[in-house]
Amino acid sequence: IKCEAHMQIKKVGVIGAGQMGNGIAHVLSLGGYHVILNDIDKNTLEKASQNIKNNLERQVNSKKISTAESNAALKLIDYTVSLEDFNEVDLVIEAATENEPIKQKILNSLLPHIQPHTILTSNTSSISITRLASCTDRPEKFMGFHFMNPVPVMQLVELIKGIATDQETYDSCLQVVEKLGKTAASAEDFPAFIVNRVLMPMINEAVYALYEGVGSVEAIDTSMKLGANHPMGPLELADFIGLDTCLAIMNVLHDGLADTKYRPCPLMTKYVEAGWLGRKTKRGFYDYTGEKPIPSR
Ligand code: CAA
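YS: structure for the whole thing
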């Protein structure tokens, strides 16, 4: 018999309206949840609202959803710069920038505005859930809720329990994932969880292959696309994720597991130092200033 003791989640607060936050608001609203999307920056909220409209339209055009579903979803999202508007949410998904002091500061300023039953989660791709939980008043109601980019397209959500997370909290989050039509994978709270524990060393190894002259950007990406059936080559994917994010995750693995096999490739570090962060800065392993990306090396 399935236990139904866990709480019914109706209203969800999302913190951070960047690439991940707006994708999360998008899929939650399609799943029928009332969403409060928060960001400190009004312009980011306006951009997010436009992105959500555009991405829903893509799904209408490719007949994945109907116009009525898209309109209903748009009506379910409210935008706010104030965390005071989180006073009725059942679940919070924090998707602010991947910086631990900033995340802790946000969690601290959020606590006075939420109810005792509210579940807190973070979309962090690598920061310790146990450590984030410990700076809140409810470690048993805190866990990792990790979506993949692009959120409306990717099927997986990683659910990460901290050392103190209780089963009811996990079950409530699992129910949300299922209602979104996505698939959950359960990960223990160790550095970078599952997806990035496996994916980032692969990307890092591709950068080493480039650094050592084993192959060109084009040869490496073609090899993995056509030789391993990956939808994007590892260098193209690194540009898509952002080289700063890839480097930050490699450093979390290197520091957290203290094993030299996670040593970030010096070429990746150099690109980040140069500000060549991938698609978002129009230059990474490819140059994105023209009509078609061209290898920058
Ligand atoms: N919203 C809605 N729909 C979107 C979308 C978005 N943001 N982005 C793409 N789509 C849709 C497109 O409209 C298109 O739909 P149709 O097939 O119905 O026309 C479909 O997705 C495919 O897109 P494209 O045709 O533009 O391009 P593609 O076939 O090359 O697919 C891709 C793009 C889905 C991104 C694919 O290349 C891919 O799967 N890449 C790998 C992505 C990946 O590995 N993501 C994980 C990164 S790691 C991570 O996120 C974890 C972390 O912590 C760092």
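YS: worth flagging: Residues 55, 58-59, 62, 64, 125, 148-150, 152-154, 195-196, 199, 231-232, 237, 241, 245 surround acetoacetyl-coenzyme A (CB under 6 Å).
IM: good catch. Also The first helix runs from residue 19 to 30.
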